[in-house]
Amino acid sequence: MDKPVPPTDDHRFELAVQVVDRDGSLATNYIDFWKAGHVALEAKASRRGEAESPRHRQGRPLREKAFGQVRNYVAHVSGTPPPYLVVVDVPSTLIVWDRWSGQYGDFGAGRRIGLAKLHERPDDITLLQDILSDPARRDPRGKAQVVTRDIAGKLAELAATFEDRGLDAERVARFLMRCVFCFFAEDVGLLPKDLFKRTLETARQAGTPAHVATVLTNLWKTMDTGGMFGAELLHRFNGHFFQTVEALPLGADDVKLLIEAATFDWSQVEPSIFGTLLVRALDPEERHRLGAEYTPREYIERLVEPTVVEPIRERWTAVQGTVVAIEKAAAEKAAKTEKPTADPLSKKERDQAIKLLLDFHGWLRSLRFLDPACGSGNFLYVTMAAVKRIELEVLNELARISHGQTGLVLEEVHPRQFHGIEIKPWAREIAELTLWIGYHQFWRATHGGRTPPDPILEDTGTIECRDAVLAWDKIVHRPEKDRPDPTPRIPHTVTGELVPDPKAKLPYYEYVGARQAEWPEAEFIIGNPPYMGQGRQRDVFGDGYVEALRASYQEVPDTADLVTFWWFRAAEEVALGRTTRAGLITTKGLAQGQNRTVVAHAAERDARVMWAVANHPWVDSADGADVRVALTVIARAPAKAIAAEVNDEGKIIATRTVAALNSDLSATVDVPRAASQQLRANEGIASDGVKLHGKGFILEAEEAKAIIAADKRNALIVRPYLNGRDVAQRSRGLYVIDFGLMTKEDARTYPIVFQLVADRVKPSRDANKRAAYRGLLVAFWRASAGSAGRCARTGQVHHHGRYSEASSLLLPPIQHRL
Fold first, then answer.
1. How far apart are the C-alpha atoms of 547 and 564, rounded to whole Å?
2. DSSP 29
3. CATH code for residues 513-677
4. Where are the domains of the chain?
């Protein structure tokens, strides 16, 4: 390493770092070598003779301590941690850790490089050169994402080709999902090399489209049961994908596209985005969004870390500490003998250490993980990847302690531990496919060319296709509760604008026996449930469903966002002690208005938010748009809580540790609690504005002036109108029709304006789903504001408060407060 000239805080030896000691005092420590965005290095020197021991056992505690030091120092350097950590044990060993997966892992996750023979290992030399010069070249995510996008594009082309021939989209999707797994299987050694590609080429040359379909059907039937396919012996795959098989009739062009798809390196797909892209590729309604953004893996890992990784790693660290203590005691005992050995562990001590590791691994395999809105499985996969990385550390430690003894671990962390609930059948199957692809990628990385035991796939049944928050016995149509359909369908006879058809009805379905849906028991819950505000819920699900849902969740306010029902259920699982931690993505509205009463209610039952980002950038799964969300992790009676803050790029820029977070996810003054205590001195000094429930009341300035010119009395009911945007930015000069508390008979005395309301407002009001909205709803505002000559106005929702003086003749919307 060349000495930085001149040294800076971005590149230098001996970078000073301010670290808080256990006693709370501030100490200055030093990173031996630092290059921002590249590497942090800690160097130690073993005592003479220790480095030459066959297994370097005496040097291990020194290297572990060095790793712990540099990892701690990096956490205290501002900015993003470097992609690599390096510990050098002079003169024997160099160990490298990367954080491409989101974290460095534990000590056992490092890559060991022997210094004595480094000159003979060009791959290790290149790795070290890349770390110092261009670490991004080593980032596996970039290549995987490009490959995955290209693959999804080819699948979309295939799906569109089939659908253009009139084939059912669901049949096409199931056929292509089987093809997808075959492409992957032959690239990772689960099928003989290029078997699927060779089968397509041979069948195309030998027969008709029907013949190609027959050959593929036979292949998939053989994969299901195992056995001979031609001259090849196939493993038994079993599983959901090959139990019922149907191959579509393929023409020459179809086979050509499939062969082109087979040429990709399917072993490189990135499962965390593969499911999302596969849904977009196979679903005709989603295909236009194939190029849209998707949720970055780093965002998902940000939630998985405190929800799943931290509690597991806390237990794993304790086990490691006990194993190290056993080794240290054995080494000290052996050092007092006349003939010290390189491996001081006795059989009893070794068996004790092995049992500790096997018990922890058994506990790891017993854990269950649930995503109650799993979609295409990206959260479940990222969670499984994090758990598998910890498992690899356990297996490496077990191999070291046992001297490579085989047969100790019969089973590993498996997809059957990962549960999901998903209401869309396609997404459910894609979630299963995503998990299995991820699992076999890990198997290949861990075990090399060794084939996993049969069956290669299992129909685990852990991903359920059903409603996650509501269960019922039956659905019954109640015609007497049908209501007018508010969808504009026919032209109005006067205005020509589309208005609701008075003959069209929305059916009312009663959900008989409605109740909260049961969730599978799980130690960890994680996911990204659907967002939908109160206003859209009836339009999407129907009145009957919404009323049944709200009746089943009395503790959740009627105004709550749909995602709040998932949050409530997760908090209940934590409060009952069935779940250790639950981490969910919600709208940032969870910390606002009535939604936060659910957070407060959970806290009363000791299910508290222990980690949160109240305002985090996200990518909406519905349309790929940028949105803002809240990330929360719930635990039972946590000892402390952390509020994290991120910038617009999603990078954490600050954290604050407190005894408990407030219901609005803040870590400072509990404003919601203070605001809940009404002060008599404030009575009557502020009031919400009105809610129009129809844009037909709004008038442009020219039309308003013309109406007033036609009859000066109209100035009493055509009034200036401002909303929050008008106050914060520039007034649009709009007016509003306001009949106030007039009776219908009084309103008719203003014939021009009355007819405008009849033409523009009444058709949609007649079809409104809530009878209460057919009134003008302004009486309460009038009662409080009518006696004031002047008012101060401000918007209800804004980052920075703006206040301005206004006449009481101005009519404000409900987004205003006077």
1. 15
2. E
3. 3.40.50.150
4. 11-138, 143-289, 297-464, 513-677, 684-817
